[in-house]
Amino acid sequence: MSRSIPVGFTLCLLLSPLCMADQVVREVPDTTAGKGAGVVTGLMVGAVGGPIGALIGAGAGFFAGRSVQEAAGLTETAYEVKDTQGQISTVRSPNARFEPGQQVTRKGSRLVPQES
């Protein structure tokens, strides 16, 4: 009896993360690649005007890159995910597809479907 309590407690601690899954709230567009390309392009073009021009060009390129990627229809996929504490965060997932309400687990910076 004296060993069963610590063993049971240890099992609960070790297995509890398996029972807690995050939930996909909705799919959102991701324009990170366009923003990055816009910053680099704006930085190079703005560098003609010196350091201040480079900063202004990078800022303008950030917004222009996002807009160009959205207008071209080349947005990638990201998901808003609610964790077990109720916090919502955005997670990029360029290859995997999920449905709203689906249970998922985070493996590093990626999502994988929760196994039943």
Any key phrases for this structure?
116 residues; alpha+beta; 5-stranded antiparallel beta sheet; 45% helix; elongated
In words, what does this structure look like?
This protein has one domain (21-113). The protein contains 3 helices and 5 strands. The chain has helices at residues 4-19, 32-46, 51-71, and strands at 22-30, 76-82, 88-92, 103-107, 110-113. It has a 5-stranded antiparallel β-sheet with strand order 3-2-1-4-5, with no helix packed on it. Strand 4 and strand 5 form a beta hairpin. Helix 2 runs antiparallel to helix 3 (51-71). The two termini are 32 Å apart.
Short description:
This protein is α+β, with helices and mostly antiparallel strands. 45% of the residues lie in helices and 26% in strands. The chain has one domain (21-113).
Outline: elongated
Secondary structure tally: strands: 5
Instruction: Write down the overall mean pLDDT.
Output: 83
Measured between the Cα atoms of the first and last residue, the distance is 32 Å
> What is the share of helical residues?
40-55%
Structural class: alpha+beta
Q: State the low-pLDDT regions, or none.
A: none
Q: Count structural domains.
A: 1
The whole-angstrom Rg is 22 Å
Strand count, sense and barrel status of the largest sheet are: 5 strands, antiparallel
Strand order of the largest sheet: 3-2-1-4-5
Beta strand %: 25-35%
Number of helices: 3
Order of helices and strands: HEHHEEEE
